[in-house]
Amino acid sequence: MSSKSGLSWLGIVPFLLFALLFLLLPTMNIVVGAFRNQAGAFTLENITNLFQPSILSAYWISIRISVASALLGCLIGFAMAAAMVLGGVPGWVRGPLLTFSGVASNFAGVPLAFAFLATLGRLGLVTVLLREWLGVNIYAWGFNILSFWGLTLTYLFFQIPLMILIITPALDGLRREWKEAASILGASNAQYWYLVALPILWPSLLGTFALLFANAFGAVATAYALTGSSLSIVPIMLFAQIRGDVLQDPHLGYAMAFGMIVITGVANLIYIGMRMRSERWMR
Amino acid sequence: MRGRRLWAWLALILGMIYFALPLIGTLEFSLRMRRGEYSLDAYRVILSDPHFHATFGFSVLMALGTIVLGVLLVVPTAYWVRLRLPRWRPVIEFLTLLPLVIPPIVVVFGYIRLYNTSSWLPLTGSVGGTNLLLLFGYTVLALPYMYRAVDTGLRSLDVATLTEAAQSLGAGWITILWRVILPNVLVAILSGAFLTFAIVIGEFVLAALLNRPAFGPFMQLIGANRAYEPAALAVIAFAITWLCMGLIQLVTRFQKHTQIRQR
Amino acid sequence: MAFLEISSLQKDFGSARVVTDFDLAVAQGEFVSFLGPSGCGKTTVLRMVAGFETPTSGTIHIDGQDVVSFKPNQRNIGMVFQSYALFPNLTVAQNVAFGLRVAGRPKAEIQATVREMLALIKLEALGARYPFQLSGGQQQRVALARALAVKPKVLLLDEPLSALDAKIRVSLREEIRAIQQQLGITTIFVTHDQEEALSISDRIVVMHNGRADQVGTPFEIYNHPATRFVASFVGSINVLNGILLEPERGIVALLGDVQVHLGRPLAGRQNDEVTLALRPESVTLGGNGGGVQLKGQVESVNFLGSVIRLSVRVGGNLMLLDGFNQPSSPPPKVGETVQVSFGAEDLMVPGE
Ligand SMILES: Nc1ncnc2c1ncn2[C@@H]1O[C@H](COP(=O)(O)OP(=O)(O)OP(=O)(O)O)[C@@H](O)[C@H]1O
Ligand SMILES: [Mg+2]
Hints:
The structure holds three protein chains of three kinds. By secondary structure, chain A is an all-alpha fold. Chain A has helices spanning about 15-35, 45-50, 55-85, 95-105, 110-120, 125-135, 150-170, 175-185, 190-215, 220-225, 235-245, 250-280. In chain A, helix 8 (about 175-185) packs antiparallel against helix 9 (about 190-215). The longest helix of chain A is centred in the N-terminal third of the chain and has 34 residues, at about 55-85. Chain A is globular, with a radius of gyration of 23 Å. Chain B has twelve helices and no strands. The longest helix of chain B is centred in the first third of the chain and has 34 residues, at about 50-85. At the A-B interface, helix 1, helix 3, helix 4, helix 5 and helix 7 of A face helix 1, helix 3, helix 4, helix 5 and helix 6 of B.
């Protein structure tokens, strides 16, 4: 066996080759392209060109939707997970809720858009019922499913379950003795949460927020099926650019894609860093 | 104590309403095609549409291909890394997590630029090549889930001892992988496979940008042109996702039973 | 009224009665252990004193005050948990300071107390560490310091040593006892290790099926067990069944035909069955142990270090006997017939 060990790295060559050809090189190609002009020379022009109003506003609205859906997803998902784990509800709630979260967190893309159109679109069930039963016309109030809040509300359908799935183990990790030790030492419930529980959960919360942010930022299909091209968020703009070169300059497309990688990359770095921190404590 | 339980129920019930409404709304909408009464017309239209058959079949084939390629790629690698190359683990793990970091639209953008007709490997030049490229793309998307599932499965095995035991009985590498390792991580592989299926079957961006007639772009097209059929499609897609997750639950539960029996 | 007084305490979980008719009076500064098998209700009583469980009925007074209606954070009690329960996000010093911090004490006082407490547990140098950087024994000492920092009226310890390995267990229990005596703090210590309870307690409560079978000093518990359960649970014991021949003169027939004069009157009537108990160390190999002389066959020999334990079959009964190890005289072999003897006055009558 030892005679072979010098060559044992050969065993992972197929995988490395695959990753190189279909993950690393394509991405590198985009990144390098972002710093090249048509003639192939190095330039920062593509990056500076990102700072034009239409692209900046696309990034801005993308970031806002991602932050809003991640923040709300975190808050609501946390509330539901905390209700399930700490709220004293019967144990049978847990299994179905976690299974459903597994399903819903994977139910993204085109059909999710259809579901929300059928519910909150102009003829959707909720829209109609609100109008007929309560006399409330949400569209007259300025609501539109093809808008910032419409998209955010739709994204929540996979953001909340993802939060539940990730934060439940962290909540399970809060040991009953910590609460008891705090209260026997004189701490109120609020003091326990402020001084012990939240600091322990904080890395998980922040990390999950980053993950949800990246999750929303990179999503194309739901937004495209919901709004067509009427809402200019970054992935849709890039999608249109790849399809038809609407920006005329392909290198600007590279730069936009590069910007996406940077943003989701930073978000994921935060996620991984926070995860490692919380695991260190929890040993 | 009682107040806390009240708040807990309130949070759960409000959440459940948020999740139930779109499902009920979609179901109701999908039945509304015939004026004045509920009917299954939307489903009938969809299910008899030849494009539905073609695209759905195409996506199922793609999903199966992705699963096969994913297993072939991931199982030997994860096994080998655990057995012989533990130092490479962080690298491999990093690579398998990258698809979660790099948005799929960026990856496929790279494909289009790198493998176009004028490149050194003109995969997009032919239908077969493009299908292959799509397959590779899906495998990349599935990599994080596949690898994590298999690696967790391997962790609960003592890979080194199993391998040595098999070797001492004269088994070769292929035999070890096929007869010893694979059956033991089968449940992990199946979980990964069902998840992969759920992801690939409705995938939109890769298929649309590579211009392949998959189920995702078909749904999008229907959505842009029809009223009630999209809701029916959403119900079908949701049922498929639910089925895949249900199967994952089923196989993991099955594994727990067999594990107990082994002891 | 005693400093800590528990009376007629009862606790039901659903239909299961877990604690029954539990009475206990603990004097200020006393160290009392709860000893009993797993599931007998030790933790439940402790948690009722702490306020984590509400008694089904009964009262708990601390320093003259009925505390049953008080929340845990109003009781001024210190508690040490089996699993340490240190806050993982706080350093050792911050953990110790926690109780003072939530009480809003001035910074200077907190710092002084923390320093004093860390000195008490001899971990001055580790104040800046996090719990995960400490060994189990160190963590439990920090937990003790954290509980003591708020100067509680009562200190509760629920099997604080059972997660530690044997060596540390012995040294830490002595350390706990020393600190307790130094501070004069009223303490309840839960354990199911009888040696632990016997070695460090002022008094022991032996619990069985949710009741206090006996409350007494280690000496009383060991030498005058109140019930058969106490006799058999605390230390090893030989249980001998006999027939009462003459109650007023204390004459009993043992092992069929051996007449034994206890020299004191016994409760009961003639021909009643009686249970007598005898500690292994009261039985001697050879004829010099006392008036009762028996013959038997050696069934096993266990070398325990300073003590050698034999089991000898006498009549139909198996009898344990402990003797000190003496290098000059090796123990008998298995199968040998030996003579054993004991004094009739060493026979215990549980409940007497
Ligand atoms: N919350 C509860 N609900 C129902 N039954 C309980 C609860 N807590 C304890 N019990 C039961 O009460 C009995 C006494 O439990 P307790 O924890 O007081 O025992 P213990 O003497 O501390 O045992 P151990 O030495 O194992 O810690 C046990 O039979 C246990 O199953
Ligand atoms: Mg206990």
